[in-house]
Amino acid sequence: MDILNHETIVAPATAMGEGGVGIIRLSGTDAEGTLLRFFRPTRPVSRLTSHRLYHGRIYTSDEVFLDEVMAVVMRQPHSYTREDVVEIHCHGGTLVLRRILDLLIDSGLRLARPGEFTLRAFLNGRIDLAEAEGVIDLIRARSESACSVALQQMEGGLSRAIYRFRDGTMNLLAEIEAQVDFPDEDLDFQDQERILQAGRALMSEMDALLATFDSGRVLREGLSILILGRPNVGKSSLLNALLGESRAIVTTVPGTTRDTLEENFVLGGIPLRIVDTAGVRITEDPVEAEGVRRARARIPTADLILLVVDGSLALVEEDHEVLSACLGRNLLLVVNKGDLAQTPLSGGFADLPQVRLSAHTGEGLDVLRDTIVSRFLGNSSGEGRESILLSDRRHREALVRSREALGNFSIAVERQAPVELLSVDLRGALQSLGEITGETTPEAILDVIFSRFCIGK
Ligand SMILES: Nc1nc2c(ncn2[C@@H]2O[C@H](COP(=O)(O)OP(=O)(O)OP(=O)(O)O)[C@@H](O)[C@H]2O)c(=O)[nH]1
Ligand SMILES: [Mg+2]
């Protein structure tokens, strides 16, 4: 990506499809001039006032009428990109949008790349990188809690924490560098203690933020849950009970489910993808065998496996086979059919973490829901969360590196290493923190981050 280009860009800002209104957005020095070439305000004015919506019509240079629209100019720096931005609010039809877009591109504007408006907002210093990433997370969010996490980040919550770490590290660096002027003197004992204490305080704040990553990741990325078990134990019934609708076919015939079946829903603020599978058994039927293969293939990537058994029957060889296929994975035993007389669990099953329920009556489902949520979020559910969470792997890695550099710094201070060496670790810590907020992020990584955005954002 040519990161410092000043071309004026254009893109649809709303999804291309049918809708009440479709918005086309322009950004750059030619944005207003281009609008004025094709837009005729209903009430002629000598100059458009910034941030005011004008009613009018769009005509091509050959006087072809394209649409009745509302248009607004937002002059820099008070705009999303900090450049001159124009929005044309058209009727929301694919062809209407396409014809106006083509007109603007033919007149010399360039179609924006994914995320290019937000990239410009970042490059022009209106938002930092973590805030820009919050924007895309907000658009992609699949649960209320994921929305809250993204909003926090977009509004600078995470950035403020990172800037606090940066300021703390810079203060340490200033102290150390003041010593460089007196190279023959070591840090005296009092200086050393004070610096160590400040370093420790900083590291424990970092640790506290790092500790939020597991919850943050789960809320942002969601979880994949696999329902596994031998035929007829009630896997599809469990899926239906969790969804509250009759999604999967349930019959008394073992081997009913042939393929994997996926559904999304939200539990305690966590976006979940839950997968029902074919009952695991050895079978001659090629369709069912393929289903079993697909079920097994999901085991390595599931965040949680719900291993379902029929509590009314003694366990059989097939149940043990399923268990051994998911050993070492995050596993929860679901003992189903609790409405029938129960048979005690045997073998290794009795010791597994388990929930007893009835997919028929719904008894025990709440316990299952709570167990799933608390396994991933601890006791606090994701709903109504206000505190700042670290949710992005890239941010976490950078913060871990920064924390390590501070750890090395503390050790070096304790060992009374030469002051010149101490500043190396501190600079490393600052470099890593800057990668989160974008000051020191390599261009190639910026490319990857912004290419995840949609066009027009
Ligand atoms: N009594 C009772 N019967 C249940 C319960 N859950 C499921 N069943 C019955 O068990 C049979 C099998 O249920 P399914 O949900 O199709 O089982 P499955 O594990 O998906 O079976 P396959 O798709 O063949 O692997 C059906 O007759 C269900 O009505 C329950 O909680 N109590
Ligand atoms: Mg089934």
From TrEMBL:
It comes from the Bacteria. Keywords: Cytoplasm, GTP-binding, Hydrolase, Magnesium, Metal-binding, Nucleotide-binding, Potassium, tRNA processing. One of its GO terms (molecular function) is metal ion binding. SUPFAM superfamilies: P-loop containing nucleoside triphosphate hydrolases, TrmE connector domain. Coiled coil: none annotated. GTP binds at residues 232-237, 251-257, 276-279. Its cofactor is K(+). This is tRNA modification GTPase MnmE. The keyword Kinase does not apply. The keyword Hydrolase applies. Homodimer. Heterotetramer of two MnmE and two MnmG subunits. (6S)-5-formyl-5,6,7,8-tetrahydrofolate binds at R25, E87, R126, K457. One of its GO terms (cellular component) is cytosol. Pfam families: MMR_HSR1, MnmE_helical, TrmE_N. Exhibits a very high intrinsic GTPase hydrolysis rate. Involved in the addition of a carboxymethylaminomethyl (cmnm) group at the wobble position (U34) of certain tRNAs, forming tRNA-cmnm(5)s(2)U34. Its EC number is 3.6.-.-. Its main location: cytoplasm. Belongs to the TRAFAC class TrmE-Era-EngA-EngB-Septin-like GTPase superfamily. TrmE GTPase family. CDD domains: trmE (cd04164), TrmE_N (cd14858). InterPro entries: G_TrmE (IPR031168), GTP-bd (IPR006073), GTP-bd_TrmE_N (IPR018948), GTPase_MnmE (IPR004520), MnmE_dom2 (IPR027368), MnmE_helical (IPR025867), P-loop_NTPase (IPR027417), Small_GTP-bd (IPR005225). HAMAP family: GTPase_MnmE (MF_00379). It is found in: Cytoplasm.
